Amino acid sequence: MLVELKNGETYNGHLVNCDTWMNIHLREVICTSKDGDKFWRMPECYIRGNTIKYLRVPDEVIDKVQEETSKSRSDRKPPGVGRGRGRGDIGTKPGGRGIGRGQDDGKGGGRGRGGIGSKGGNKGGRGRG
After folding, report:
1. Dihedrals φ, ψ of 120, to 5°?
2. Structural domain boundaries of the chain?
3. What is the pTM of this model?
């Protein structure tokens, strides 16, 4: 692939890695100066993402990636097929009702404002006073 930097230099090499910030690691690199009169050959180089002006990727690579993604999409199940959605177990457990926030089992436990079976001490409020 070819990488042109904001300062005009170009780097042509094999892509090894590219991260979230578009930092690029290339191997077998040929660097060309801004004027195009000087060349350097490097075994590998690292280019910081914010110095990159543009990237040129060969068409064969793009076509190959598109083929692979379309193939992997056709292998997958269509959405909605499989295990189903939601809980699906509502009403199947004995008791039928959970004890959670906003639900009262009549025993007066939990963190409400007292009531039957409440522990002594502060009868409501935020415990200040």
Report:
1. -65, -175
2. 2-72
3. 0.55
